Amino acid sequence: MPGELGKERSGLGERIRRLIHREGPIPFDRFMEMALYDPDGGYFASGPLRSRAEGDFLTSPETSGEFGATLARFVGQEFRRLGRPAGFTLLEVGAGSGTLLSPLLGALDWTPRTVALEASPAARQVLRQALPVVEVVPDRREPDRFRGVVIANEVVDNLPVAIAVRAEDGGWSERRVWSEGADLVLVEAPARPEVLAWLEAHAADVPAGGVVECQPAASDWMGRMIDLLEAGAVVVIDYGDTSEGLLPRRRRGGTLRTYRAHHLSRHPLDEPGSMDITADVDFSALARVASDRGMHTRLCRQDEFLSGLGLSARREELRRRELAEARGGDPIERLRLRSMVKEIDTLLHPRGFGDFRVLVATR
Length: 363
Ligand SMILES: C[S@@+](CC[C@H](N)C(=O)[O-])C[C@H]1O[C@@H](n2cnc3c(N)ncnc32)[C@H](O)[C@@H]1O
Fold this sequence. Notes:
Number of strands: 17
Shape: globular
Structural class: alpha/beta
Oligomer: single chain
Mean pLDDT: 93
CATH topology of the largest domain: Rossmann fold
Low-confidence stretches: 1-10
Number of helices: 13
Number of domains: 3
Order of helices and strands: HEHHHEHEHEEEEEHEHEEHEEEEHEHHHE
Distance between the termini: 47 Å
CATH architecture of the largest domain: 3-Layer(aba) Sandwich
Strand order of the largest sheet: 4-3-2-5-10-17-16
Bound molecules: S-adenosylmethionine
Strand content: 15-25%
Helix content: 40-55%
């Protein structure tokens, strides 16, 4: 019920204000952790399913089943590369409503052990109903080590970020969240050592006035995912770029933003728990974690990655069939094929999903 939800969210805001009164200004990543993951009011950890057509954002797997079906080819390649091991496991982190796993499993002619690690209780419920063969577990319950593939689509952009601002003297300050009356506001404070270490490694070239979302939580997450693998691959798909590619966006004030009902929403401090908070992923930082652990890494665009797995060829085949139906065939089938072609175009659009990055780390 909207009323109850509203009460819960204002409860979260009040708890954040009490925390600030007790401890002083809190780092932005601590605020973001609570706003997204607090079990009682966090955007993902409470409330309804977020990734769906009528929700706050639309993702590649929600756009077309061809996304999951194409990733099935990657999973098949890894299965063969590893010598078809017994217990081969597919782990999807942030599986949402199952729109990636469902066509992926449907496209395989064998069934891997499949685990969905999901922060949202509402999504876990949907997943259990839609995909009874999948082990659905909360985000804090990672499985034992396995041989297989980890996939995370549009999850890492939600992991909490600290915000740093480059000073005129070349140093850094860090934005913290402070409470002024009923409002939460950002204030600047000296940057913490762990934030400085991250900046040194990944944002050394940012000029004065630049704003950087520092992502040590994403690096920790990447390390944990790699450590789960005896052998296999971690595939991270998201918006973002290399540290170098992010430089112009950092110069212009950073990439932190919020979403609600498919639109950019308000300031991230407004109504904690009511909006998706997200930032572009620094893929250089994630790749560094992987290479430091001896993994082979490949970073490419989503359009390249999917085309390399046969999606462009699949589009051409569907288009040929559509044109054949247009020559006196079944008009309903023609429309169905046409909409599949359009959905694939959306997945490959060079300024849309096609511009997402894919990091594949293998061992
Ligand atoms: C933007 S949605 C993407 C859902 C799905 N991967 C897709 O592409 O449609 C992010 C999903 O990841 C979940 N999530 C966010 N952070 C997570 C985390 N740290 N561990 C596991 N799941 C997480 C959310 O509950 C949500 O279902």
